[in-house]
Design goal:
The protein is mainly β. It has one domain: Immunoglobulin-like. Helices cover about 10% and strands about 40% of the residues. It is built from one helix and eleven strands. It has one helix at about 1-20, and strands at about 25, 45, 55-60, 70-75, 90-95, 95-100, 100-105, 110-115, 125-135, 140-150, 160-169. The strands form two sheets. The protein has a six-stranded antiparallel beta sheet with strand order 1-2-3-9-5-6, with no helix packed on it. It has a five-stranded antiparallel beta sheet with strand order 7-8-4-10-11, with no helix packed on it. Strand 7 (about 100-105) and strand 8 (about 110-115) form a beta hairpin. The chain is globular.
């Protein structure tokens, strides 16, 4: 009788505990074919990563990828990504402190989020872009979010920094 109760308890834990353990996800996944080169893959963290849910994305750019200061940060995403962003709940963090932002523009037609800090973000810092109040798309899949920056005094062209490969399940 004890063995039966023990087996039921273990089975119950496995059925209820494992899905919640795997909800949050982060870091680049394993890519077999295609996609950006390993050197261009950026780390990230999704609070849930579940279709149709409200979520928070933490998109990270390492200091080694930022040899120049940042006057503008642009995040592009594929046209088949049907999630929603809240420009009022987007922040940029450097050394765990929020950077004051002049403006955040969500350009839905061009699948682009443009972030303008008040002062340029100094080179050589780890940067984290936090997108809060994100409504995940209703269909799962892999989505490539590309990071580009414009440097102060530079030509108004965006430089490619890397790609976050987000998986929504």
């Amino acid at each position: 009788m004890r063995r039966l109760l023990y087996a039921l308890a273990v089975t119950g834990f496995l059925l209820t505990g494992l899905p919640t353990i795997s909800l949050g996800q982060g870091l680049p996944g394993f890519t077999i074919f295609g996609g950006p080169e390993r050197d261009n893959q950026l780390n990230f963290r999704l609070d849930y990563g579940t279709v149709g849910m409200w979520d928070r994305y933490r998109l990270r750019i390492p200091a080694k990828k930022l040899p120049l200061a940042i006057a503008q940060l642009a995040i592009s995403y594929p046209n088949y990504y049907k999630g929603q962003f809240d420009p009022k709940n987007i922040e940029v963090r450097v050394k765990n402190k929020a950077v004051p932002l002049q403006e955040v523009i969500w350009n839905k037609e061009n699948n682009l989020i443009e972030i303008y800090p008040i002062e340029p973000i100094p080179a050589g810092n780890n940067v984290e872009v936090v997108l809060s109040n994100v409504k995940n798309p209703n269909n799962g899949g892999m989505y490539h979010f590309n990071a580009r920056i414009r440097t102060p005094g530079d030509a108004p062209l965006l430089r490619y920094i890397g790609t976050w490969i987000l998986s929504i399940q």
